[in-house]
């Protein structure tokens, strides 16, 4: 089971890297424009997007999306660290380190926005994932592994379909 957990974590981590650092090189429908992800921007002010927002949807989507994005990661890491002295704290530290690595790499390689809010929400997501794994216990481990692997398959299918998933005319028209 441990090897399968490591495999599921590797699959999910690959999806995480693809969705955070490689969006400049592929499309899933017309969810984003790859060209806008080929730049370097540092956003060091916490909650800046929330405080400067003119609406609620984009900040909520950004914050909750980053939080949810790291929940499966936290679940899987907790499963691997369950026998550690302090598995919850260890999982949070691994989540923080993974997020910091992603944000730093985005900045260094000019692959998008490096945002302190992403670091905070991702770390919180890893924490929540660890809490879920802890509360549900080992009887759910196979479920979490299966879901992580399923997410990997769904991502590969969506990325493989690429631009065929959207109508560029409707996206350009705003409908």
Automatic annotation (TrEMBL):
Q: Record's superkingdom?
A: Bacteria
Listed A to Z, the keywords are:
Membrane, Transmembrane, Transmembrane helix
Q: Which residues cross the membrane?
A: 7-26, 56-81, 88-113, 119-136, 143-161
The VanZ-like domain covers: 10-136
A Pfam family (short name) is VanZ
Name it.
VanZ-like domain-containing protein
The source organism is Corynebacterium humireducens NBRC 106098 = DSM 45392
């Amino acid at each position: 089971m441990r090897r399968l957990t490591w495999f599921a974590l590797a699959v999910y981590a690959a999806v995480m890297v693809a969705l955070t650092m490689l969006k400049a090189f592929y499309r899933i429908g017309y969810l984003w424009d790859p060209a806008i992800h080929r730049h370097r921007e540092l956003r060091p002010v916490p909650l800046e997007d929330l405080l400067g927002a003119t609406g609620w949807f984009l900040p909520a989507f950004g914050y909750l999306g980053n939080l949810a994005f790291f929940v499966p990661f936290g679940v899987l890491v907790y499963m691997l660290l369950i026998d550690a002295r302090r598995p919850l704290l260890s999982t949070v530290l691994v989540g923080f380190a993974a997020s910091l690595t992603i944000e730093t790499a985005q900045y260094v390689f000019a692959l998008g926005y490096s945002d302190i809010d992403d670091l905070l929400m991702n770390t919180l997501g890893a924490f929540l994932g660890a809490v879920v794994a802890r509360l549900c216990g080992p009887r759910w481990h196979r479920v979490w592994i299966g879901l992580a692997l399923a997410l990997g398959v769904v991502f590969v299918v969506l990325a493989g379909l690429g631009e065929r998933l959207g109508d560029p005319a409707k996206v350009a028209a705003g409908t």
